[in-house]
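Issue: ligand-bound run for 3-hydroxybutanoyl-coenzyme A - logging full I/O for the record.

Environment: standard queue, default settings, no custom constraints.

Inputs:
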Amino acid sequence: MTALPPLASPLVRWDLADDVALVTIDNPPVNAAARDVRAGLAEAVSRAAADPRIVALVITAAGRTFVAGADIREFGRPPLEPWLPDVCAAIEASAKPVVAALHGTVLGGGCELALAAHARIAAPGTRFAQPEIDLGIIPGAGATQRLPRLVGMIAAIEMIGAGRRLAADEALRLGLVDAVAAGDLVTAAITHARGLVGRPLRRTRDLAVPPFDRAAAEAAVVAIDRRARRQVSPGEAARATLAAADLPFDEGLARERATFLRLVASDQAAALRHVFFAEREAARIDRIAGVIPAPVGRFGVVGAGTMGAGIVVAAVDAGFDVTVVEMNDDALTVGRERIDGIWSRAVASGRLTEAAKAAKLAKIRFTADLAGLADADLVVEAVYDDLAVKRDLFARLAAIVRADCILATNTSYLDPNAIGEGLPHPDRLVGLHFFSPANLMRLTEVVDTATTSPRTLSTTVAVAKKLGKLPIVTGVCEGFVGNRIWAVFRRECEFMLEEGALPHEIDAALEGLGLPMGPFAVFDLSGLDIAWSLRKRKAATRDPNERYVTIADRLCEAGRFGRKTGAGWYAYADGVKRIDPYVTRLCEAESATKGLNRRGFTPDEIVDRLIGVMAAEGEKILAEGIVARASDIDLVFVTGYGWPRWLGGPMYRAAQRRPV
Ligand code: 3HC
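Outputs:
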């Protein structure tokens, strides 16, 4: 290797391997195509053109991955020159062959750089994707036009519009890469580049889009739009891709760029970027910085009800050995059926084979004897949410498990400190609050109790991540973050009912904001009876001066528990949801009893008020130090309460709605 006079960019270097320039992008951690990367590549291509010693170029990247995309931190600001599409155009136009040597995650703008090269060589294990839609945008540097020319229209629509990821072998089969390197990647790419010298270059822009089934492609676009609901980027991305078949290359490119620039400045894209960075921020937990998690092999679950069964499935799916304990053999049989049922549904829909299901079941030890947990590294209890029951269970468990076995409570509302009172080695107590269905919901609140040690916290967070969850560390307060804010939200909905709004108006306002379903429709779906029994239990201790709305109680007293009883906040004769005059009368009667004059609410007023109370409660939670940052609260709603990611969460929304 001979050194070449350096490039101006600090993020790109180059050397001469005999007669091939090896251009190395070095922008850790993921080699994002930041301005200096783009500038370095552009300079390398232009200087190579004028340098007679260079016959070809290989573009590669240092570290764990090739370019994982444009630099997202540059979005939302005026684009800095040179722009990525121009750099791609310069690579493609180069008279000297350019080969991309790919490894790691070749994503977004990184994949686009590769598509503009004259050939692509990948290391085994390389993964490819155009994940722009997840950021509320579409590709902005040619993928919508170049990818269909290489892999065909249907595969391109699936990648760009539906986020399909390709492994190296599939990328090879589809024609995205020319070869998967058997040995050293860079050596293979240099050899390949030399082989292209003196031959006509295969420029992706000059290829025709291979013939495809137009009806199937259009159906795919429609399906993508439908699945995305109100998120605009997937449909836009799919349509921009389909346009490659109808427009000359440069026009297709211009259409793509215009859509990219429009979307990158949109509210949805800004919110999705907020969530992207929020997820990475949430992983920074000061209290456990540098604390190595303990290994966890055997996972214990006490209680195989709906929540427990979901936890067991999540744990087995994540590769843990699991011991399940129930009170007796009958309860164990029911629990086993529940777990079996979850995987059976996966088998029925073709996501799992019978053999794989059997292998998963075989990883579970079922027992009615707590002593079966003696070898567990972490036990999570998912038994009835009652303080005495949970306290007794932990006391008995403490006599069985190792002193360093983590004891996690899945309580929703009880105080974990009280559950762990008197526990020997209380440093291993922690809350692990899953959301139902626990095998599917991504949120897990990890509750840092008064006695939880950094090691316990670090291990529990690591376990939650291994389970595929997004752990949000919270302190102890009633309902933790999610249920505490949800309770305030729910109460405010009810206040508005007695002030003049109707359930369907509140639902419509929130659906207008972007929630998939308004809260009253959700209550009806999940059933009103559980919350009612909780209210009845708490009735004796409720402050008589507290504002309390009785409409939900009246509904339950009338046997209206929601969809399952054919009526709740709505009526469901023949299964169809309808506004029910009975509920309207109940609301009016409540206002009259309280002496309140009913008035109309605009959708904006409803939304402002609800976001306002959620954010105010969030501010209190922050002031109490329950969570580290406002964006953690947003993540709770985005990953645990069905808030679309493109809404960004209540704290984010409140900041957007606040007049400046
Ligand atoms: N731009 C800027 N920063 C990025 C980035 C990007 N494209 N991708 C990752 N980062 C940052 C992260 O914020 C994080 O920073 P931090 O350490 O300060 O928190 C750091 O890189 C490491 O990221 P992860 O924690 O996510 O690391 P992982 O190893 O878990 O994952 C990854 C690596 C798979 C590359 C993942 O980061 C990822 O999916 N990144 C986003 C990829 C993407 O969306 N690319 C498309 C961008 S849009 C585009 O290219 C438009 C184009 O068409 C013009």
